[in-house]
Amino acid sequence: LFYRSCVKPHSYWKNRGVLQGKSVWMFGENWKLLLGQESFAESVQRIYNKFANVRYFGTYQFNTPVLVIKDPELIKQITIKDFEHFVDHRMWVPETTDEMWTHNLFSLKGEEWKEMRAFLSPAFTGRKMRSMFTLMNDASKHFIQYLEGKNETMLELDFKDFFTRYSCDIIATTGFGVEVDSLKYPNNEFFRMATEAGKLTGIKMAVFFVSFFLPNFILKMLNVKIFSTRVSQFVTKLVDETIRTREEKNIVRPDMIHLMMEARKGKHEYDLVDEDDNDGAFASLKNSSPNLNQKMPKMEITNNMIAAQALIFIVGGLETVAVLARFMAYELAVHQDIQEKLRNEINETLEGLENNVTYEAIHKMKYMDMVVTETLRRWPSGLALERICTKEYTIPPKKAGEKELLIEEGTLLWIPVIGLHYDPEYFSNPEKMDPERFNDENKNKINKDAYLPFGQGPRLCIGNRYALLETKVIFFHILKTFKIVPVEKSSIPIKIVKNSFILDGHNFKFGLKKL
Ligand code: HEM
């Protein structure tokens, strides 16, 4: 049994004529990560750089054979052109043990995923973002008022905590219509549950490792879950109560719960002609929505289904946005010239707006978009993408030495995003924070299939525009009021946390100097 499950799998790629590196029985390529010797980001980069001049190679995550795809053209083929062969993400736990996880958009498979994506997509169009903008703008202004209320010319701030609270309040108000004010009430229940849901520690970390080793039927017997019962019950109750109150009192609010309720009633325009689809933001250009939106989903959308989506929006949107924002604050503190240029754009934008920024005005800010886009290149929280081969697929030979490769159904594929983002072939001088890569002149020279902060193809992050908007809005308000500066406690250059699967730094303490 040991041989079959822990030794034999490690020659899977060799036996198929695919290049593979040294792999340790049971642990594959992951032992350094397990021993805390490298961060997940370093691990992905090390694996990416293992073989030069190849389009793909084999590796092992513990005992699971994984095909690593390096070539942008092949990535495009897998994520877009031949998507029908690679529809699913990995599910991690058996379908029945944790329905809040397995019924969410990220985990749903095949036809069910397509229907759910079609059901949810209308809630994330440019037009819907415009209506959510007011909620985001109000929450941002509230955060700035809080800081101004401290009445200090120089404020020292933990940006990690600050942006996690901001991101949480935005999800609470735009998702559920709940005003939680996480700065004033730091221990509010929504914040506690949201941060607990998103953390990969304790039991969840154990599940993560165990799922690599144990077969599904044992995971089922052990009733292994991703979300704690406490978190699942909290979100289910919140969704149930919100829906009931809205129906009883006919409340209409431009948030996600409302949009999902409308979609359930069939009140969405399923012909998604979205005038903002080509909004020019580089990071969201990949919004190649498939033809999913033309028909109403057939599946019955229950309150529990809505709750599962609400929970993945919390998990998918909380930490990712907080990571982007704290690394952007770090870059702006270190690169005062970039910060100054961005502030000039903000001041120019404000001219004629009587201090009231609009969705359209934020949308038109080119330099803001360049700074956020470059921050996402340097610090992509989705370090690697995964796809499961759902229908046998053949990669024809292209380079010298390659043979035809048949990918079996069920094979796990890995796209090492951070490796591509730091590959000098696609981004010259990759260690440099340089927003000019994405200016009008240069952005067309970039290989778009090598820039993947939100993934690519029909499975692209559904919240990408939402995340960009919420980040731009808060920086707009911070920079028009304050200057972000390094302080004695700042850690420059930033030290990356080793024992975390999430891209993170050790210390995000910076100063805010009143302008
Ligand atoms: C900077 C912020 C964010 C980053 C970097 C990010 C990144 C990603 C990535 C890399 C994926 C996988 C895409 C793929 O497999 O091709 C993904 C999927 C997803 N994200 Fe995000 N995300 C962010 C914000 C958000 C927000 C704000 C939400 C919700 C409000 C969200 C909800 C989701 C969902 C539901 C999926 C699964 C989509 C599907 O499988 O159809 N994300 N995200």
TrEMBL record:
One GO CC annotation: endoplasmic reticulum membrane
UniProt: heme binding residues: 461
Cofactors that this protein relies on: heme
Domain of life: Eukaryota
Pfam families per record: p450
Membrane topology classification: Peripheral membrane protein
Assigned keywords, A-Z: Endoplasmic reticulum, Heme, Iron, Membrane, Metal-binding, Microsome, Monooxygenase, Oxidoreductase, Signal, Transmembrane, Transmembrane helix
Cited InterPro entries: Cyt_P450, Cyt_P450_CS, Cyt_P450_E_grp-I, Cyt_P450_sf, Insect_CytP450_Detox
GO molecular function, one term: heme binding
Membrane-spanning parts: 200-219, 305-329
Keyword check for Transport: no
Entry's localization field: Endoplasmic reticulum membrane; Microsome membrane
PANTHER family to which the protein is assigned, alphabetical: CYP9F3-RELATED, CYTOCHROME P450
Family listed: Belongs to the cytochrome P450 family.
Protein name according to UniProt: Cytochrome P450
Organism listed in the record: Psylliodes chrysocephalus
Organism phylogeny: Eukaryota, Metazoa, Ecdysozoa, Arthropoda, Hexapoda
